[in-house]
Amino acid sequence: MALFLASGFSFAVVGLSYLAYSRLLAPADFGLISTGLFLSALATAIFEGSLKNVLIRSSRPPELLDRSALFLAMAILAGAATAMLAVSGILGRMFAQGLSSTDLFFLVGFATIYLLTFPFLVLPAAALERRFEFQRLSLIEAVGTALERGLPLFFLVFNQTNVPLSFIWGALIGRLTRLLALNLLEPPAWGWPTREAWATARMRFMEAMSLMGAYLACLVRDNLHVIIVGSLFGKAWIGYYSWGLQLGMLTSQVFAQISARVSLPLYSQSRDEPSSWTNVTSQIRLLCGLTAPLAIGTLIVLPLLNEVLFLGKWSPTLRLLPMLFVRMATGLATTPVGMLLLARREPLCFWRTNFIWTLVEILGAILAILLVGPIGLAWSYAIVGWIGLWLQVASLEDRPGSRFARVVAAIIGCRSLLISLFGLAVLHFGLALDSMGQICFALSLAITAYLADPFLREKGRDLAGKATLLPSRR
To answer: What percent of the chain has pLDDT over 70?
Structure first.
């Protein structure tokens, strides 16, 4: 329950700041911020996406000197990566086209903040997750996220700071807050490691390398709008895609992220295969049931909000949203299935699956963009997401057909999704409503869809008690 409350708080802050940034920032500014987020995630992939999960999956927590060796190794890597980032910024200033000095300063500075703070965050966060202390961890992360996303708005509005510098200050304060809080709860290990500790650290890093390749593939796959569309069509189109994808995250991925957080340690410490698949499909039905009415309602009222609140600046994104929301629907399934794959199979299998998926994604995106221009990536996202889901299931099952059919049925058979889609079709083909009528229709449709879904009614009390449908740890 604490995980949902903390996530609800950060969701509210991120959602309100998202509305404010949508009004204040130009699409090109949105694109610049998204590029910075991509670079920061890329710079820290070895720590957050790989090494932390290796520690969570491990059969035993690292000893004191092992932790010291891991910290020193991370610090050395972070320092080397920061130096490479600075050199890249200098070269970019000399050769990059379309990027100003301010843009490059922001990109390098923003990524550096995340890179230098992660060595101090990985070990305490992994230790808390292994012990299922999600209440404290979720509170710290919620406050950190609120500062990182909310403070730039304060600097923009009240201090008249420019856009790049506002986000740099927000990132710095938010990351330092996380660092101090986590290390107070889980004090760092100090001491010079022994040779055995260095050897253990080396083995963990070698295991993390496979996961790092998988998470780098995920990052590339999720940021093709930065890599391909931005390179061909400029920062504004990065902004259009980023605005739509963040809206999809707010309406459909918040619950999925909570599910992923709890799923990995539980799947790693439980080996009951049939029960795990039952829990996966239950999670998918729950996630779809919770998010479908919200997502469809957003599609209904967004054209009105775009004209009234955002002065029509996000009109190109409205063409992308239906396809992006289809991709978000598959993401509700690939998240729990991906966590099961990570827990049940070797890191090499996890890497191979994500590499193949990303390769198909890149080829599909290039083909679609060549055919229909910048909106082609949205069509590719909507189609290839189902291929990625099949690849995940195929990596877990020798005969994936029936299991894949059950996973798809959990998505498209969701009662609240079907009711929401029916209401959207009725509005599109049969009703002509004014602005207030559209808002009332969207609210009524969402409430009806929630109340009419028997699975949500059945699991509502369990959701409030356990925050997920996964079995409680005893």
So the answer is: 77
